[in-house]
Design goal:
The structure holds two protein chains of two kinds. By secondary structure, chain A is an alpha/beta fold. Chain A folds into two domains: 111 residues, Aspartate Aminotransferase, domain 1 (Alpha-Beta Complex), CATH 3.90.1150; 259 residues, Aspartate Aminotransferase, domain 2 (3-Layer(aba) Sandwich). Chain A is 38% helix and 14% strand. In chain A, the strands form four sheets. A seven-stranded mixed beta sheet of chain A has the order 2-8-7-6-5-3-4, with helices on both faces. By secondary structure, chain B is α/β, with parallel strands linked by helices. Chain B folds into three domains: 56 residues, no CATH class; 256 residues, Aspartate Aminotransferase, domain 2 (3-Layer(aba) Sandwich); 124 residues, Aspartate Aminotransferase, domain 1, CATH 3.90.1150.10. Chain B contains 14 helices and twelve strands. In chain B, a hairpin with a 2-residue loop joins strand 8 and strand 9. Chain B starts with 39 loop residues before the first helix and ends in an 11-residue tail after the last helix. The chains are: A alpha/beta, B alpha/beta.
Chain lengths: 448, 495
């Protein structure tokens, strides 16, 4: 057994030498009728070479970002990851460490998280950020629960339909057993949150209003207007960002008065990974710090006065507060957060903005080229970041099938989530798509 | 402006990244887009754009690599040594698992790409569900939860949905005093009141106590087996019968599955819902706190409530089914922490039945060996054979004013990561040791030798324990200061 050092003889000797008795005696605490049925029936063990062959064959049964030109985004994005990220990440001192409960021998993880928290605060413009949540969707769900904790008697959450459908579903699941009402804010004709509806319908029972920034269709809601409607009614303003690179170019959520900003951080440092693991960014104002879910790292000193870091404010958390905790979460996406931190450090302030600009420019080029073709148009005429919606005269699934025949994975047909957008596709263009790739897409589309 | 490397406070071991670099440096060279350069305000309204973000540092690749390499060197890790954290199962993380997780077909596949182009992923998930079903003895599995606590949430939501379908959601959950804090926190999230259950003098759940507490308002008993004292819940069959008879369900926290493979299947113990931590029993790395993965295994009755989507197989093809009207819904984006599933799948494939059975057997022997070797030196609050972990206390050291914390910190000087301490709460000054199966006898012996030496130091030279650790770069950190004056991010003014 390559991962288990002890041989049968070793085990026997350990039991004898220590006087622990036989394994049978030790296992007498397990009722006989349970033990008798416990034998496992799994396929036999594979040697390392056969295992690698088997895993490769499974992997080869999938398309991936390098085997096909892909225009999918919608919550997880195909960005280039510099080699240094993977090399640092795979250092076993990061990879195989536990949660930093013993700070004297966990300063590497702790300081990295502290740096991550700082980056998240800088990107979102908020005062404080936690050590990360499972992903953007669950971070949003936690933000909604937090808003209700802060607003106590207010139990209504106004959730825009321009928020990622899977985020909305996740919010509904997290609140299903609690006395919280989720009300969906309709879309306006321009693919943005309907502010006229919001103005008319938002009332003082609202704990929070939730929008996506940039929204699911890649466009930008009227953040300023929404903020003023929200603050008039004394509710909290929550924003969710699925494409964190956009914050390199777009104003920080805090600039619009957002109270809790969450985001999916995958775009920095983390592969799409068939949807996970990713990481949820979570940031808020200092005033709400003690209502925040999740781990926090804080600066302190050791007894020699040396600057160091510890997990802190844990009286909010489940291992101390049990059923009164701010969340049941007991982990963070530490390694994903480290990848995020390394990638952002490599980019630096200019690199981040340049990367965001490249995404913007390529997406704009693609948008213009596609809509110059007959049969493809823009249903929403508002500026977008690196995703945009295209309305197709032909059936969207036929369009994608046609593209696939030419080795291209098209965008996301929106009819899956929005019946009224049955004729629309959400395209995503990142820096990994070149001008030539876009020209190729357009050429294929022109043949449809 | 003063140099970024001057510090007014006592010098840190490694500056934060924000104190490094200087204007104009970068760690990347971006690929040219092939387009003419643009001004973002040509596309985006100026009221939405921002300048470069002040505070984000400018550093070269070598500076970034050195910075994080130095940080890594301040960490203890499984690859570096014995990590006996009770209930955390810090076993060795096989290297091939990392290689397979990086295969492009896995890491580079998009969750929304067509199912016919994702058959390898879906097959892997389907087969992993089958493996976990075999190991747990429960017929249905969801792989979606991102961690153990997330699995608890999904599991308790399914339990609630089941009771709702039966006509009454019920209002209470019974939780033993040995439980992890996530159990009560999860119950609250699912709208349940928590009723604590006192363990008996043998450290396990008392059937009489369950009989007394169980009524038509109790939705579930949430237990951990083996429990956090490392003891098998010997009355489990009787307890499950009592709970089931009154219409309740049994939730089992699978944190301690490492003791059970080939020993006991939760499905045979009367468990209705079980979550498994792939980052514990199935060897995926902890990564400094995550990402983990917490699949949930359930009985037939609960199957309608599984989170969507469910991976299914039809005539040799694998598919994601969202059409599940009674589902509790989605618990996160996409399909779970897929990259972690790949590693766990590879691990189970490399172990087979015999290997996994050997895992539990070896882990149990290691734990009992440690307990026996330390018997004369430390108090053993529940003194009988344990499963995969043992719990000691600092009672024998109390006369010398030495506490569990001091023992833990002194272990650091001996080159070991301390065990889990002050948990479970039912033992005062608990020291919870889980050696796992991947430690050779030599490592276990060195740890025991260190523990025995520390017990002696406690008698002869308690000061050395109270001032530990001394031999690592950081000594005890001021946690009170951190909480009183929270400084949760770097700012330029901090300097």
């Amino acid at each position: 057994m390559r991962y288990i050092p002890a041989t049968d003889n070793d085990l026997k000797a350990m039991l004898t030498d220590s006087g622990a008795g036989s394994l049978d005696e030790i296992l007498a605490q397990v009722p006989r009728e349970i033990r008798d049925k416990a034998k496992l029936n799994l396929s036999p063990a594979l040697d390392e070479m056969s295992l690698m062959r088997h895993m490769k064959s499974l992997s080869d049964d999938n398309a991936h970002m390098d085997s096909a030109l892909t225009f999918l985004g919608a919550g997880t994005y195909n960005h280039f990851i510099p080699s240094a990220v993977g090399h640092i990440l795979s250092r076993a001192e990061f990879f195989t460490a536990y949660t930093p409960y013993q700070p004297e021998i966990s300063q590497g993880t702790l300081q990295a998280i502290y740096e991550y928290q700082t980056y998240v605060a800088l990107l979102t413009g908020m005062d404080v950020a936690n050590a990360s949540m499972y992903d953007g969707a669950s971070a949003l769900a936690e933000a909604v629960l937090m808003a209700v904790r802060i607003k106590k008697k207010r139990k209504k959450i106004y959730l825009s339909r321009s928020v990622h459908p899977e985020y909305r579903e996740t919010v509904k699941t997290y609140t299903r057993d609690l006395p919280i009402d989720i009300i969906e804010i309709p879309l306006a004709e321009d693919g943005k949150t309907d502010v006229i509806w919001l103005e008319k319908n938002l009332n003082e029972e609202a704990a929070a209003v939730v929008v996506q920034y940039p929204n699911f269709f890649g466009t930008i809601d009227d953040m300023q207007t929404i903020a003023s409607i929200v603050s008039d009614k004394g509710a909290l303003f929550v924003s969710a960002t699925t494409e964190v690179i956009s914050l390199g170019l777009l104003k920080a959520p805090a600039d619009f008065g957002v109270d809790i900003a969450v985001a999916e951080g995958q775009s920095l440092g983390n592969p799409v990974n068939y949807g996970g693991p990713h990481l949820g960014l979570f940031a808020t104002k200092t005033a709400y710090l003690r209502n925040m879910p999740g781990r926090l790292v804080g600066e302190t000193v050791d007894i020699d006065g040396k600057r160091g870091y510890v997990l802190t404010l844990s009286t909010r958390e489940q291992h101390i507060r049990r059923e009164k905790a701010t969340s049941n979460i007991c982990s963070n996406q530490s390694l994903c957060a480290l990848a995020f931190t390394i990638h952002l450090s490599l980019l630096g302030k200019r690199g981040l903005k340049e990367l965001a600009k490249t995404n913007l420019a390529l997406a704009q080029y693609a948008k213009e080229k596609i809509t110059s073709l007959n049969g493809f148009s823009l249903p929403f005429n508002s500026p977008t970041f690196n995703e945009f919606v295209i309305k197709c005269e032909k059936d969207t699934h036929q369009v994608n099938k046609f593209l696939l025949d030419k080795g291209i994975i098209g965008g996301l047909p929106l009819g899956i989530f929005y019946p009224e957008l049955e004729d629309a596709i959400l395209f995503c263009v990142t820096e990994k798509i070149s001008k030539e790739d876009i020209d190729k897409l357009v050429e294929v589309l022109s043949d449809i | 402006m003063t140099s970024k490397n001057n510090f007014n406070e006592s010098s840190p071991v490694e500056p934060v990244i924000f104190e490094r670099g200087s204007e104009g440096r970068t760690g990347v060279m971006l690929a040219p887009s092939g387009l003419e350069s643009i001004n973002e305000t040509d596309i985006l309204p100026i009221e939405f754009t921002r300048d470069e973000i002040d505070g984000i540092p400018e550093v070269s690749e070598v500076e970034v690599v050195r910075h994080f390499t130095r940080l890594s060197q301040l960490n203890y890790s499984v690859d570096g040594g014995f990590y006996p954290l009770g209930s955390c199962t810090m076993k060795y993380n096989p290297k091939i698992n990392e290689d397979v997780a990086k295969l492009q077909g896995f890491a580079g596949s998009h969750p929304y790409q067509p199912e016919e182009l994702s058959q390898g992923n879906l097959k892997l998930m389907y087969e992993l569900q089958g493996m976990l079903s075999e190991i747990s003895g429960l017929p249905h599995v969801t792989l979606q939860p991102a961690a153990g606590a997330h699995g608890e949430m999904a599991g308790m939501m399914m339990i609630r949905a089941c009771h709702e379908a039966r006509g009454n959601a019920r209002s209470k959950v019974l939780i033993p005093d040995t439980a992890h804090g996530t159990n009560p926190a999860t119950s609250a999230l699912c709208g349940y009141d928590v009723i604590p259950v006192k363990s008996n003098e043998r450290g396990v759940i008392d059937a009489g106590e369950i009989e007394r507490l169980m009524d038509g308002e109790v939705a579930a008993l949430m237990l951990t087996n083996p429990n956090t004292l490392g003891l098998f819940e010997e009355n489990i069959l009787h307890v499950a019968e009592i709970v089931h008879k009154k219409g309740g369900l049994i939730y089992c926290d699978g944190a301690n599955m490492n003791a059970l493979m080939g020993v006991a299947k939760p499905g045979d113990m009367g468990v209705d819902v079980l979550h498994i931590n792939l980052h514990k029993t199935f060897s995926t790395p902890h990564g400094g706190g995550g990402p983990g993965s917490g699949p949930v295994c359930i009985t037939d009755e609960l199957a309608p409530y599984l989170p969507v989507p469910v991976v299914e197989k039809h005539e040799g093809n694998y598919a994601l089914n969202y059409d599940r009207p009674d589902s509790i819904g989605k618990i996160k984006s996409f399909y779970g922490n897929f990259g972690i599933l790949v590693r766990a799948y590879a691990y189970i494939k490399s172990m087979g039945s015999e290997g996994l059975e050997r895992v539990s057997r070896t882990a149990i022997v290691n734990a009992n060996y440690i307990k026996e070797r330390l018997r004369d030196h430390y108090d053993i609050p529940y003194d009988r054979p344990c499963m995969h972990e043992c719990v000691l206390s600092d009672k024998k050291q109390t006369p010398y004013s030495v506490k569990t914390l001091d023992i833990a910190k002194r272990l650091i000087d001996y080159g070991f990561h301390p065990p889990t301490i002050y948990f479970p709460l039912v033992v005062q000054g608990a020291i919870m040791i889980e050696p796992t199966e991947t430690e050779p006898r030599r490592a276990v012996d060195s740890f025991c030798d260190a523990m025995i030496a520390i017990a002696e130091e406690a008698r002869e030279n308690p000061e050395i324990l109270k001032s530990a650790p001394q031999k690592v770069k950081f000594r005890r950190l001021d946690e009170v200061k951190a909480a009183r004056e929270p400084k949760l991010r770097w700012t330029a003014s901090v300097k």
